[in-house]
Amino acid sequence: MYDVVAIGELLIDFTPVKNEVSTTPMFEQHPGGAPANVLAMHAKLGGKTGFIGKVGDDAFGHFLRDVLDDCKISTKGLIMSKSVHTTLAFVHLSEEGERSFSFYRKPGADMMLVKEEINKTLIDHCHMFHFGSVSLTDEPCKRATITAVEYAKKNGKIISYDPNYRQALWKDAQIAKEEILGIMPLADIVKISQEEMVFLFGHGDMEKGVKQIKDMGVSLVLISMGDKGAYYANKKVSAFVPAFKVQSIDTTGAGDAFLGALLYKLRQKSLEDIQTMDKDYWHTILLFANAAGGLTTTKKGAIPAMPSEDTIIELLRKNV
To answer: What averages of pLDDT result for each successive group of 10 residues across the chain (320 residues)?
Structure first.
């Protein structure tokens, strides 16, 4: 039985590095893609995970498949395309470590997953199913993603959704809003950033935004607030849990590590548990997830930067 199966993008993140020799920009190759990052954090903590998606049958694609294998993420749902190249993303970092992206995806292999290629056996044997909105930007992966989510929902899986809005990948902001919000009623768990809430709802009022999301039928809303912390709300309780102070150098994958760690703590919980657990339990879970996200920012890259459970526990021991 898989704790979490995810569908979506698996790609190469090229992260800038300092060039001490010349002024020519240099980039490091790292594995990336938000759904894969979530699985990597979950798997690093000892959870069982599986990935559904498509990469090119090229050097980058083989590298990514090897990364998933090394992370002990099942690749039974990974398709290698001989006709389309692996998607590439160039990450640009500000002095504060905040990111912007340039994508080489016209098309990229992740966009070309078709619904007939979905490994439904993986979904049949999972507890939670996770996806994001990047795979809703283009056909045929949009139809494949919706098909997979609807199948998982129909078969009683807990659905996790991270809108993960990337402006550069959408043709039009209004279309992005409609697509991102249109599928939200299928989700049981939604993780959203403050910036995404402003984009989707036109305001930054957390309580109002949480109510709007919960009114769609969502059981657990998580609002990630960067180095401030995170806010959560289920059907019974809500609260803000502060982040830990760390020396951040690259925020790539921090939100994914947060969500992967949180889903790890929920891997044996039912949907009813998620809807009704009390503040003490959620506080413990959010501290753990915040620690995972914070520690991920102390190294470059997403998957390579994700901390072990021992490292997370050590940070908690020193600060809680």
So the answer is: 98 84 83 96 98 98 98 98 95 72 91 98 99 97 98 99 93 96 98 95 92 97 94 95 91 94 98 96 97 94 92 93
Burial category of 116 from C-beta neighbours within 10 Å (exposed 0-12, middle 13-18, buried 19 and up): exposed
Residue in the structure block whose two tokens are 């993780």: 191
Distance CA 157, CA 132 (A): 16
* pLDDT at residue 277, as a whole number: 96
Using N-to-C axis directions, what is the helix angle for 173-182 and 194-201, rounded to 10°?
100
Cβ atoms of 136 and 145 within 8 Å: the answer is: yes
Name all contacts of 213-219 with Cβ < 8 Å and 24+ positions apart. 213/184, 216/181, 216/184, 216/185, 216/187, 217/185, 218/184, 218/185, 218/187, 218/188, 218/189, 218/190, 219/188, 219/189, 219/271, 219/274, 219/275
Pairwise CA distance, residues 212 & 190, whole Å: 12
DSSP 169: G
